[in-house]
């Protein structure tokens, strides 16, 4: 039988910790601040940015939401980042990904002050993660996955973990966290070009699905009793919904769930944790200021 890992409930607990940390910071005279920059009008990005800003409000974190038109130039976006780097009221800066195609995202990420890079995407923070140097910021989604595994009581030590996906946002940092000292998993990183992906997956005690392909992981890919963390957030057409779409993960949940010891749903799994860990990172940054 499978246990559903309730990401919403774990996120609520993390946000409760955050609420207390905000109070402690304010007692010291520090109001934490997060700036969220959105370029363009991608509807999914608008939803995520909205919920980040709303969560800040609920916790008493100062937030600045900066929405720029699609035509914004690289130069203008860099100027916004520079202003936020210099603003003492802002402890965290996030430029929502993906930006429009004419923007060089890597250059933007490098322009963010690493000490305010609460996404953990700046090369300095990537290096610190690889070095297991805790003075960096850990990317929010993989940090949230690790917290979910912990809260679900999943033993990572010595476990075979298969990460499907090698992105700098999820797959790569996830692999680093799982193999780090203290977590001690044996990690395989697979991706869409891996030979015999189903066979690799079947070796896993823990599957982290982060490929961005709706319902790609099928029941016969997953060993009986495995733990499955579904990072996918895919919008698929659904005429029966008012919105015209529904959200689905990278895992074929209805057929996979009965085989698992534990599994995260979509929505209500990893997504809410990403936001909760972003708040955590913002408070860590404010605490260092
Ligand atoms: N610089 C940057 N940092 C990010 O952290 C970042 C980003 N760019 N670009 C896009 C991805 C995606 N992401 C999500 C956050 C929350 C949910 C979330 O809360 N999902 C809800 C459902 C939300 C809905 O209804 O659409 C859930 O899964 O239950 C999903 C996805 C952050 N991202």
UniProtKB/TrEMBL annotation:
Cellular compartments per GO CC: cytosol
Keyword Aminoacyl-tRNA synthetase assigned: no
Ranges of residues in domain Tetrahydrofolate dehydrogenase/cyclohydrolase catalytic: 5-119
Residue stretches making up the Tetrahydrofolate dehydrogenase/cyclohydrolase NAD(P)-binding domain: 139-286
Binding annotation for NADP(+): 165-167, 233
Listed InterPro entries: Aminoacid_DH-like_N_sf, NAD(P)-bd_dom_sf, THF_DH/CycHdrlase, THF_DH/CycHdrlase_cat_dom, THF_DH/CycHdrlase_CS, THF_DH/CycHdrlase_NAD-bd_dom
Catalysis performed (reactions): (6R)-5,10-methenyltetrahydrofolate + H2O = (6R)-10-formyltetrahydrofolate + H(+); (6R)-5,10-methylene-5,6,7,8-tetrahydrofolate + NADP(+) = (6R)-5,10-methenyltetrahydrofolate + NADPH
Subunit text: Homodimer.
Family: Belongs to the tetrahydrofolate dehydrogenase/cyclohydrolase family.
Record-level GO BP terms: L-histidine biosynthetic process; methionine biosynthetic process; purine nucleotide biosynthetic process; tetrahydrofolate interconversion
EC identifiers of the protein: 1.5.1.5, 3.5.4.9
Gene name in the database record: folD
GO molecular function: methenyltetrahydrofolate cyclohydrolase activity; methylenetetrahydrofolate dehydrogenase (NADP+) activity
PROSITE patterns: THF_DHG_CYH_2
Pfam families: THF_DHG_CYH, THF_DHG_CYH_C
TM region(s), chain numbering: none
Known role: Catalyzes the oxidation of 5,10-methylenetetrahydrofolate to 5,10-methenyltetrahydrofolate and then the hydrolysis of 5,10-methenyltetrahydrofolate to 10-formyltetrahydrofolate.
Name used for this protein in its record: Bifunctional protein FolD
Keyword Amino-acid biosynthesis: yes
């Amino acid at each position: 039988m499978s246990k559903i890992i309730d990401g919403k409930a774990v996120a609520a607990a993390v946000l409760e910790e955050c609420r207390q940390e905000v109070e402690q910071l304010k007692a010291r005279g520090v109001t934490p601040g997060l700036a969220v920059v959105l370029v363009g009008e991608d509807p999914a990005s608008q939803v995520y940015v909205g919920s980040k800003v709303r969560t800040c409000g609920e916790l008493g974190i100062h937030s600045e939401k900066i929405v720029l038109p699609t035509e914004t130039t690289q130069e203008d976006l860099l100027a916004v980042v520079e202003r936020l780097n210099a603003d003492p009221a802002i402890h965290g800066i996030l430029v929502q990904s993906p930006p429009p195609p004419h923007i060089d995202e890597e250059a933007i990420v490098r322009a963010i002050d690493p000490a305010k890079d609460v996404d953990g995407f700046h090369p300095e923070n990537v290096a610190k993660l690889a070095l297991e140097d805790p003075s960096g910021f850990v990317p929010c989604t993989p940090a949230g996955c690790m917290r979910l595994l912990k809260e679900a009581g999943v033993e990572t030590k010595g476990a075979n973990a298969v990460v499907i996906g090698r992105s700098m946002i999820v797959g790569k940092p996830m692999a680093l966290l799982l193999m780090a000292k203290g977590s001690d998993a044996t990690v395989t990183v697979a991706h869409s070009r891996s030979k015999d992906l189903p066979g690799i997956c079947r070796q896993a005690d823990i599957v982290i699905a982060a490929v961005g392909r709706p319902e790609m992981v099928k029941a016969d890919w997953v060993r009986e009793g495995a733990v499955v963390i579904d990072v996918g957030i895919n919008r698929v057409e659904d005429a029966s919904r008012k919105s015209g779409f529904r959200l689905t993960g990278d895992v074929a949940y209805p057929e996979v769930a009965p085989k698992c010891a534990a599994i995260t749903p979509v929505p209500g799994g990893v997504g809410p944790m990403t936001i909760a860990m972003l708040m955590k990172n913002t408070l860590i940054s404010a605490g260092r200021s």
